[in-house]
Amino acid sequence: MVKNHGLAGIVVDETKISSTKNAHLIYVGYPIEEIAQASFEEVVFLLWYKHLPKQTELVAFRQDLVNKMVLPAETIRLLLYIAKEPQHPMSILRTTTSLLGTTNDVEHDEPPKILAKMLTAIAAIIRIRDNEPLMEIDPDLGVVENFLLMMTGKKPSKRLAKMFSTVMILHADHEFNASTFTARVAASTLTDYYSCLTAAVCALKGPLHGGANERVFEMLETIQQQQIDPLKYLQDQLKAKRKIMGFGHRIYKDGDPRARILKQIAAELVQTTDNQVYYQLQIKIADYMFARFNLHPNVDYYTALIYHCIGLEKETFTMIFAACRTVGWLAHIMEQRQEGSLIRPSSVYIGPTGRHYLRRVGDHNE
């Protein structure tokens, strides 16, 4: 048998949700460069129901999601306690996701309500960590606007809401990535939605997956605060055999299409904030990594700066990734459930063989 590390190149199933074939990302047939211009709610509808909504459907769908962006009282009470613990926010989200599956008649929760509660819970964790009061939804705003409002405490401008909508769309799904595959494995057992999402959150937490965006900003902060020459920093890190986060992708050898769009958003956002220095650092680092290793930035690279410009702490970056990716996780959970097949791969045993156990008298107590 041929072993493929990390299942690289192995086709494990079919999907109608998204594809990265030929290093070209599509959502249900739409190129990411085009569908990223849609509204967030349109893309959620598309990934779940495999077609774009009519205008009347979109209005009703958006309002339904917004109306459901409310947490049960018992969830809020527990969040006020666990979110203040000195744990990484992704650990808090892991516990919170599991908690959401134990309150308020969750047996009948469906994807719209689950997505709405996840967004609200993530915003609540951020507010509680910042010692700020929780925000209520504004029924006149859309999902993205309300998510930003509940995170930052301020009603976003239309320009910011549009940019952040694009960011959320770009992170919504990405074929059988590690966390999505984890969710599908759980879903194949026919466990509940919240169990599947909890498993996905655990997978996303790792620095080689969702946690990379946090590491990217740590790098920028270190270089800026310590006034280190960025090229010397990179050379020292590489000499110490440390990975430079935010570069390279198993699929996109010629550049991540999402990163190209995110770079434009980051460039626009820094014009109205005091973060131009970070953006210039990113350009220098990206130029060096391409010139020396032919490596392009991936989706995590510019996302880190975008989240910082919005006013978020770097420890919460991966939670925002989780908020966006919940859309895709739910789409894949639904698809896997319909398939009705347990995911149970085989392995190649390479341990010792031919051993025998002979129990000797006196080796145990009577």
Automatic annotation (TrEMBL):
It catalyses: oxaloacetate + acetyl-CoA + H2O = citrate + CoA + H(+). One of its GO terms (biological process) is tricarboxylic acid cycle. PROSITE patterns: CITRATE_SYNTHASE (PS00480). One of its GO terms (cellular component) is cytosol. The active site is at H249, D300. Pathway: Carbohydrate metabolism; tricarboxylic acid cycle. GO terms for molecular function: citrate synthase activity. Pfam families: Citrate_synt. Keywords: Transferase. InterPro entries: Citrate_synth-like_lrg_a-sub (IPR016142), Citrate_synth-like_sm_a-sub (IPR016143), Citrate_synthase (IPR002020), Citrate_synthase_AS (IPR019810), Citrate_synthase_bac-typ (IPR024176), Citrate_synthase_sf (IPR036969). It comes from the Bacteria. PANTHER family: CITRATE SYNTHASE, CITRATE SYNTHASE, PEROXISOMAL. Belongs to the citrate synthase family. This is Citrate synthase.
